Amino acid sequence: MTRVLVFGSGYIAGHVGTRLTRLGHGVVLGSRRRPRTPESRGLRWLPVDVADPRQVRTVVDAVRPDAVVAAHGPSDITWCEADPAGAAAVHAAGARHVVSALAGRPARTVLISTDNVFAGHADSCTESDPTEPANAYGRAKLAAEAAYLAGGDTLVLRVSLVYGWDRAGLRPNFFTTCAERLAVGAPVAVPDEHWNTPVLIDDVAAWTTALLDSAHTGVVHLGGPRRLSRVRWARHIATTYGVDPALVTAVPQGDTAYACRPRNACLHSERAAHLPELRGLAPVDVFAADAALIAAPAGLPAPPRTPTVPDAPAALDASAAFDASAVFGRDQP
Asked: In total, how many domains does the chain have?
């Protein structure tokens, strides 16, 4: 069993942690706030602010990870644009703190990065295309990439727009937001001429865990197989629900919260087809996933919340002496 420390506790971190746990790994999430998403329930958690190098070192010394997944820092692009220094402190400086704390440890690392490291002039970008960050978030993530790659045994997985049911998230993703409104006949305003290659959260978790268990380094792109505008996507969601697609209206991107996003936030890969660990893990088409998600029980209206299920896993005290057997069992070194 591998000890995996996942920096982050949001949507992606929770799904990755859950998949790793099901594969038999010992997983600890590390983040500033307690995990609140359903997929994080049952996962161990340690409080840590990656902007504080002492906290990062304390957690790394406590967990003694064999592998690390870096999914830390807010992905709220609008917030990052408003506070570029704050974005850099969490993403870029945080990456340097993690790399420093891991120095001398044989810990394999996968960083989850973004399509926002590109300006969006091309319809889609591959791993060999030159980077040109579109915004403060992209600049901070690109600096984090450089820090992690300089640390050694690291792979950067850049992902396109991630989707799936995310009702409990602080900022539910585009699919969830559209689906919940359209399901009750509410209108949706969507930026025009904003293009993505959406990727299902299950595929992000599958690729992350597969690549974590490989020797590949450098950069790999994960985008869905279909490039489409957000308007077309939202109207497909409406059609799948059987409601009038005219509920979706197109508005100028510059007049929305998406103003600082690249026009084309699309990725495809030159490397993935040549990596044996990814065989059988082709990303699902977004239209097929829409239908499956909406038809699934999770697609039904959410029941009232009750206090019968804990909001978050129990925290482990990183400030005290940490007994690794509490997470990994007595057979661990």
From this structure: 1
